[in-house]
């Protein structure tokens, strides 16, 4: 082999060796670089968007709805229950008969009282006639003045006997009336406490009648919040079992004394119920509408209020970052808080349910698609979202 051919072969071998070394170095460099972590996928339940919401501030009230007017009808006499006329849940009119208690002895007393009244009236009639006759005889000088006075005294005694007999008759009638239980007002029988045949004593409960057209809620508020309360102030209510439906009531009375043990004041709120959509015994939660504003807000769960100052975890450019925020008014009933600074409307914040993600964690927010809107303009169909911001889909509250 000639010297020229050997030199060319060496050059080829050197080039091949350099290529192999370059590939090894590249593979070694790639192996030494840390791999990017896979982003954490967040759904609609994990994030919330900062957006204008209507917040209300005022004392929160909670309690059980009760009928504003209710009466427990009790037996006034001793005896056996002869009849229970109405059933539980039945509507009644004022004065309607509800129950009847045995009245045999009361009827006997009533008959005796009526007889005594008739006898007393006849005695008074005779005494008046005798007095009139004696007065004429005394005027003619046939009898003395003393005989006339005796006749007048007899008439006074007969009149007193009649008054006493009439009083006993009225008492006997009342006694018979007490054996009849009647509705004190128009309403609904909410409870039936006895049955026919029961032996009852005076004071035994037989029925409870309520007026369902007006309900009342009794609640307590801290004395420090009395400056926002006065009779007539509107109160918005939500009632268990009625979903998102709201009801409106008004403060009727405020107890003038503060409970020294709790430092709270008792207030009474009336709720019109003319359609009888609400039932007594339901739990209700309301708020005095003292202040109402539309401000950028998020659920309280999206803010770490334990930090000083409060902070929130925001999703920006696909990563988690912690920002300091300034809080404003709080809607205690809806569990919303105003964010005055630190974030902007449209920013996406992490809820507490998304877990404890560290700053810098890559995330991917998957939200439902927003329906397309027709028409050009800012925010219309085809308008791209701002650079670095997540898609502008509606977020759940």
From TrEMBL:
SUPFAM superfamilies referenced in this protein's UniProt entry, alphabetically: HlyD-like secretion proteins
Domain (CusB-like beta-barrel): residue spans on this chain: 217-289
Annotated ranges, domain CzcB-like barrel-sandwich hybrid: 71-211
Annotated Pfam families: Beta-barrel_RND_2, BSH_CzcB
InterPro entries in the cross-refs: Beta-barrel_RND_2, BSH_CzcB-like, RND_pump_MFP
Gene3D superfamilies: 2.40.30.170, 2.40.420.20, 2.40.50.100, Helix hairpin bin
Region spans: Disordered: 352-397
TM segment ranges: none
Compositional bias segments (type: Pro residues): 383-397
Keyword set includes Zinc: no
Residues forming coiled coils: 148-182
Keywords for the protein's UniProt record, in alphabetical order: Coiled coil
Family: Belongs to the membrane fusion protein (MFP) (TC 8.A.1) family.
PANTHER family, alphabetized: HLYD FAMILY OF SECRETION PROTEINS, MULTIDRUG RESISTANCE PROTEIN MDTA
Protein name as it appears in the record: RND family efflux transporter MFP subunit
Provenance organism: Archangium gephyra
């Amino acid at each position: 082999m000639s010297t020229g051919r050997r030199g060319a072969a060496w050059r080829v071998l050197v080039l091949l060796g350099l290529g192999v070394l370059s590939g090894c170095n590249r593979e070694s460099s790639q192996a030494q670089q840390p791999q990017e972590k896979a982003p954490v996928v967040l759904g609609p339940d994990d994030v919330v968007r900062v957006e204008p919401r209507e917040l209300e501030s005022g004392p929160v009230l909670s309690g059980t709805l009760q009928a504003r007017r209710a009466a427990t009808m009790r037996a006034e006499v001793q005896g056996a229950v002869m009849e229970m006329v109405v059933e539980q849940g039945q509507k009644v009119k004022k004065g309607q008969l509800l129950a009847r208690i045995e009245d045999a002895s009361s009827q006997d007393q009533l008959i005796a009282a009526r007889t005594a009244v008739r006898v007393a009236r006849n005695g008074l009639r005779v005494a008046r006639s005798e007095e009139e006759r004696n007065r004429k005889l005394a005027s003619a000088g046939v009898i003395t003045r003393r005989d006339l006075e005796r006749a007048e005294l007899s008439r006074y005694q007969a009149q007193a006997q009649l008054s006493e007999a009439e009083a006993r008759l009225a008492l006997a009638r009342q006694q018979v009336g007490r054996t009849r239980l009647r509705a004190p007002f128009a309403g609904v029988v909410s409870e039936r406490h006895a049955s026919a045949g029961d032996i009852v004593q005076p004071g035994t409960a037989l029925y409870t009648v309520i007026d369902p057209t007006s309900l009342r809620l009794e609640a307590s508020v801290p004395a420090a919040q009395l400056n926002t309360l006065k009779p007539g102030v509107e109160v918005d209510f939500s009632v268990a079992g009625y979903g998102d439906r709201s009801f409106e009531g008004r403060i009727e009375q405020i107890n003038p004394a503060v409970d020294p043990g709790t430092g709270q004041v008792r207030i009474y709120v009336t709720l019109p119920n003319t359609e009888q959509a609400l039932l007594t015994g339901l739990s209700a939660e309301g708020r005095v509408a003292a202040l109402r504003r539309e401000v950028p807000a998020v659920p309280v769960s999206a803010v770490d209020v334990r930090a000083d100052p409060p902070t929130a975890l925001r999703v920006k450019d696909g990563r988690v970052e912690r920002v300091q925020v300034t809080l404003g008014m709080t809607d205690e009933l809806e569990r919303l808080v105003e964010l005055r600074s630190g974030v902007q409307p449209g920013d996406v914040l992490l809820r507490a349910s998304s877990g404890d993600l560290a700053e810098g964690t890559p995330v991917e927010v998957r939200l439902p698609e927003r329906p397309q809107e027709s028409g050009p303009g800012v925010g219309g169909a085809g308008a791209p979202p701002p650079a670095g911001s997540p898609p502008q889909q509606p977020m759940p509250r």
